[in-house]
Amino acid sequence: MDTKPKTPVKKILIIGLTIILIIILGLVAYVYLGRERGGPLPGEKEKTPEILSPAVTVPPGAQAPDAGHKPVAVGACKENREKLQGLFAYLDRQEYVASHRLPGGTFEHFKGLLGRLLERPPFVMRETDDLVQVLQNKAHFYRVLGKKNTLLLRDIIRKEGDIMESSFAILYQAMALQEKCAAGTPALQVPLKDVYPYAVYFLNTLGGSSYLIRRDSRVRILTQYYSVLILDQANQRRLNNLGLDIRPPLDALIGDLKGTANLTRKDEYIETLKGIRKRY
Q1: Are 145 and 213 in contact, with CB atoms under 8 Å apart?
Q2: What is the DSSP string of 241-275?
Q3: Can you give the residue ranges of every domain in the chain?
Q4: What angle, rounded to 10 degrees, do the helices at 9-28 and 192-204 form?
Q5: What's the predicted TM-score (pTM) here?
């Protein structure tokens, strides 16, 4: 059984804080940056308003798409790509990131982390039938990513917490726009079906819940929020193969958001979830 009994619990749980960030950053690296590694934007300042400005978090299907209006899509892709390049360039310039000496910088590194996660998804079907599966799920991210990446991701979460909401919004928008923005380009596509298991993992498994239950409410709610958005996309595209009912976690999340006081954009999150709820 591939578990690590002597691994400190805190180190294992740290990864739970960062899994959504890894997935979305990796998706961005695959879909938007491709083989081109973005550097600092001309005249860019640390934590510029352009990088931190709000981004639409409503998933595809929540609003009627205008498939024939290509200029709008192209403009959104260009704007989002610039923000993403700025975000990766900003991380590359931070001393605590540079101290890890990442070959190729954060772009290449997060792309590699995504590849590992997609190749080795957690157990999301009949998890509790086997105690071994439950234990492996609890240590899933530590086992897949290793100690060094745990420390790196811990540093990012600790030092960049003040831009977490805006960064997640920008990165999720990139994932939601990947089909429009990647059309006709050699960039790699990351299938929704490969990201879907992680949404189920956080919303409906003991392993996923164990990571979130001991975290602060902001991290827990943001993780659940983006998991719900991914599950909603899977429903719309008929990729919810496990038939997970979105309504219980969605309703519970709306209630949690109403009671939280540490998310600056909670009203936007609530309205987005209410729009999704009307479809079920």
Answers
A1: no
A2: TT---SHHHHHHHHHHHHH--S-TTHHHHHHHHHH
A3: 9-277
A4: 150
A5: 0.74
